[in-house]
């Protein structure tokens, strides 16, 4: 637009009508070579461009004012700004706003359509580019003198579908066998498709792809490559012919081999035509580079291929015309004896590849050996069938181990593995141990579990207070049959003998025969909280929600840190909680603290009381609102129902106190009561006053074995909400006309006027978009116990 809208010079206005552009894009008035026709031909209809308002939006489009110049998907927009010298991106924003002012009243916008291009006058500042596009994206922009050129249109729309440029030698656009180069800027051509990496990425020929890993394959590749034209004419046969061969190699890029046949949708190829092209690239639309073009009888060799001492050889053995035309390609690693094209086979015996895991077949029609994987299935569902290239098939009896200690694993040949539930299967136990001193004095207890577990966790608590110094329980070396339990003071000193209770539980979610549910798991983390720090734990999600907030017990199950450490859980809800390590006041905020990763075992119990196999249990949590530090008032847990002092584990499940704390017996311990303090360390000061904290507990009659059944839920996990997300991005990409093939209407080839590649990091004036542009009968499920340290 501009003040002189009626000018036909092209400097202030576009020089063509909407009908003209519609014809050049979609062939609506007889143009046979358009962006729509070329994409349709190269993809055989898998990607079609149709004019806007020719689909579900037609009803809305019919409401357009009769004065609006709209023809077969092309909308003419007038703006009142002078765009001479204006950055193309700014002009695009003006046009988009104007277009939306027309479309919005009928319930549409430019984003209602899959893709849109903006055609601007040549007088807009293009930075030397003929056009640009977002990769991937929905928008492209063209200077009017190039907007009807099929080669430019296809190239820019290629950016929109995610492809970058195709280079050769030193020029990033110089692979002219691919439309992401710049093979021509002619109005009606060229009729060219895409190179190997881009064709593989687009996926139109995926049934005719071949993935070949020379380093890890026992056989070379030997096959027939056909061009896109014969594929489009349905002359190619799946399994016999290939359009693209991807050769895996070390590094970020692979090699892609393709027959550059001049025929059909690629009849406009005039660049190494009818040769085998080897192009380096990826499967994500990145920049590609032509490495070699191999004529019939030629080869391309890559020394020290993929970091190996061997040379990869790609040979174009011969080319034949027919239905289809093909190029016979042989790809192999040279073991020092040379690589030659194989002679045509005469029978299956002549195809021996010295691999007992392949079926070797000679195709009499093709004269080419094929090697298919040998099926080693012996019809027995109770064997693992594998194949060794030297010895052939073997059939090993399957263990059928499902990793569940509460099932009997067996196998029937006709149906395979079965897993029968075991009544009274132990998956939890409790106990006690007496510990005479701390780990720093060499005292620890090796606990042998009463039962064997598959993947247990252990939680522990010091019931007694024979020594008043701060001390905490620790667990390490957890196996299926036992663990090590010990005490440690924050200042690494000796300590009086104490009684420690522990609970061992199989990971998973279980329903007690006494009526309660619990879930056990573990989490490894290097996240830790110290004095004065806000608690930020790792979020843990239960495999299924509890009906009410559970009692969560937790203990470190490893000993990776050099210094003292404990654990802390907070924010307990029906769906999960947060967990981390806790080093309290053992280090100040100014100290350089190096935290090693530790594994924290945890058990979440539904609260309540009951009897399980004759054993009393009491489970709960509470915050009495009274300061429960060692210098203050003990928290009392009512244990009435137990005949003797039970195995009880208590844990802090809050962070009300900023100095950090953990649960420790206060000295009151009997069959009716367990006293608890929120224990603090005395590394930085001697006081151990502490505000009230919520305590969680689970008590069982001493030496209990707990019975229940597994609930069919998934394993607990770190909450997905804590995981990072990746936002896609893209940047505008543009095309530069090739001076050697510029049409007469293009700008001159002089440096001052010839279109040159514009930087992909577009200026701030470029378009503003909302996204960036270019887991039976009742089973025992645990046990409890105590140990004296």
User: What spatial form do the alpha-carbon principal axes imply?
Assistant: extended
- Give the % helix: under 10%
**Gyration radius over CA:** 37 Å
**Mean pLDDT reading:** 85
Share of residues in strands: 25-35%
SS class: mainly beta
Number of helices: 7
Q: What's the total number of strands?
A: 47
Distance between the termini: 89 Å
Report the biggest beta sheet as strand number plus sense, adding barrel if it closes: 9 strands, mixed
Low-confidence stretches: 1-11, 714-731, 733-781
Could you explain how this protein is built, in words?
With 789 residues, the protein is mostly beta strands. Helix content is 8%, strand content 34%. It contains 7 helices and 47 strands. The strands form 12 sheets. Strands 23, 25, 28, 29, 30, 33, 36, 44 and 47 form a 9-stranded mixed beta sheet that branches. Strands 6-13-12-11-10-7 form a 6-stranded mixed beta sheet, with helices on one face. A 5-stranded mixed beta sheet has the order 9-8-16-15-14, with no helix packed on it. The protein is extended. The termini are far apart.
Describe this protein with a few key phrases.
mainly beta, 6-stranded mixed sheet, 7 helices, 8% helix, 9-stranded mixed sheet, 789 residues, disordered N terminus, 34% strand, 47 strands
């Amino acid at each position: 637009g501009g003040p002189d809208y009626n000018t036909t010079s092209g400097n202030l206005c576009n020089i063509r009508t909407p009908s003209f552009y519609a014809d050049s894009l979609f062939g609506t008035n007889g143009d046979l070579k358009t962006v729509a026709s070329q994409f349709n031909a190269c993809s055989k209809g898998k990607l079609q461009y149709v004019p806007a308002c020719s689909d579900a939006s037609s009803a809305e489009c019919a409401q357009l004012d009769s004065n609006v110049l709209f023809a077969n998907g092309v909308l003419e927009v007038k703006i009142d700004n002078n765009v001479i010298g204006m950055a193309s991106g700014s002009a695009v924003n003006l046009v988009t706003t104007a277009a939306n002012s027309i479309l919005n009243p009928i319930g549409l916008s430019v984003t209602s359509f899959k893709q849109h291009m903006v055609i601007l006058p040549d007088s807009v500042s293009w930075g030397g580019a003929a056009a640009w596009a977002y990769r991937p994206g929905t928008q492209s922009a063209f200077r009017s003198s190039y907007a009807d050129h099929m080669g430019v249109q296809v190239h820019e729309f290629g950016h929109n579908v995610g492809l970058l440029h195709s280079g050769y030698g030193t020029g990033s656009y110089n692979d002219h066998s691919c439309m992401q180069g710049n093979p021509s800027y002619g109005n009606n051509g060229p009729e060219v498709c895409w190179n190997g990496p881009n064709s593989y990425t687009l996926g139109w020929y995926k049934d005719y792809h071949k993935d070949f890993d020379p380093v890890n394959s026992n056989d070379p590749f030997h096959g027939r490559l056909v061009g896109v034209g014969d594929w489009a004419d349905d002359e190619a046969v799946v399994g016999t012919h290939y359009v693209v061969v991807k050769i895996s190699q070390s590094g970020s890029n692979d090699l892609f081999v393709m027959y550059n046949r001049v025929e059909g949708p690629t009849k406009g190829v005039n660049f190494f035509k009818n040769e085998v092209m080897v192009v380096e690239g990826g499967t994500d639309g990145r920049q590609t580079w032509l490495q070699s073009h191999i004529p019939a009888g030629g080869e391309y060799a890559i020394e020290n291929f993929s970091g190996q001492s061997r040379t990869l050889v790609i040979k174009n053995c011969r080319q034949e015309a027919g239905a289809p035309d093909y190029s016979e390609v042989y790809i192999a690693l040279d073991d020092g004896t040379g690589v030659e094209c194989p002679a045509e086979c005469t029978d299956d015996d002549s195809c021996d590849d010295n691999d007992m895991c392949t079926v070797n077949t000679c195709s009499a029609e093709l004269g080419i050996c094929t090697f298919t994987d040998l099926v080693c299935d012996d019809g027995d569902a109770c064997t693992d069938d594998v194949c060794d290239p030297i010895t052939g098939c073997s059939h090993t009896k399957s263990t059928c181990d499902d990793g569940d200690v509460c099932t009997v694993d067996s196998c029937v040949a006709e149906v395979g593995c079965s897993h029968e539930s075991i009544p009274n299967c132990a998956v939890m136990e409790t106990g006690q141990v007496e510990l005479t001193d701390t780990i720093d004095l060499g005292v620890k207890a090796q606990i042998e579990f009463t039962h064997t577990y598959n993947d247990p966790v252990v939680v522990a608590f010091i019931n007694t207070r024979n020594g008043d110094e701060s001390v905490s329980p620790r667990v390490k070396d957890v196996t299926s049959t036992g663990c090590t339990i010990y005490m440690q003071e924050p200042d690494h000193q000796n300590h009086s003998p104490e009684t420690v209770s522990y609970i061992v539980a199989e990971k998973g979610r279980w329903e007690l025969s006494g009526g309660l549910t619990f879930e056990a798991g573990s989490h490894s983390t290097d996240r830790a909280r110290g004095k004065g720090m806000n608690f930020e734990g790792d979020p843990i999600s239960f495999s299924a929600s509890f009906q009410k907030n559970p009692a969560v017990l937790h203990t470190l199950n490893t000993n990776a840190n050099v210094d003292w450490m404990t654990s802390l859980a907070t924010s307990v809800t029906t769906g999960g909680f947060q967990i981390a390590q806790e080093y309290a006041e053992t280090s100040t905020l100014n100290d350089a603290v190096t935290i090693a990763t530790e594994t924290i075992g945890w058990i979440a119990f539904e609260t309540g009381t009951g009897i399980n196999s004759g054993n009393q249990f009491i489970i709960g949590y509470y915050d009495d609102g009274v300061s429960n530090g060692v210098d203050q008032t003990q928290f009392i847990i009512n244990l009435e129902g137990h005949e003797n002092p039970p195995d009880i584990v208590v844990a802090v499940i809050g962070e009300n106190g900023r100095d950090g704390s953990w649960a420790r017996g206060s000295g009151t311990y009997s069959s009716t009561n367990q006293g608890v303090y929120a224990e603090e360390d005395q590394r930085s000061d001697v006081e151990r006053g502490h505000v009230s904290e919520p305590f969680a507990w689970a008590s069982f009659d001493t030496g209990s074995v707990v019975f229940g059944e597994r609930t069919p839920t998934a394993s607990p996990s770190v909450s997905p909400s804590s995981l990072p997300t990746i936002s896609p991005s893209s940047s505008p990409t543009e095309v530069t006309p090739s001076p050697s093939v510029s049409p007469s209407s293009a700008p001159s080839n002089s440096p001052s006027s010839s279109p040159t590649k514009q930087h992909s990091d577009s200026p701030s004036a470029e378009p503003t978009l909302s996204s960036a542009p270019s887991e039976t009968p009742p089973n025992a499920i645990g046990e409890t116990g105590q140990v004296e340290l």
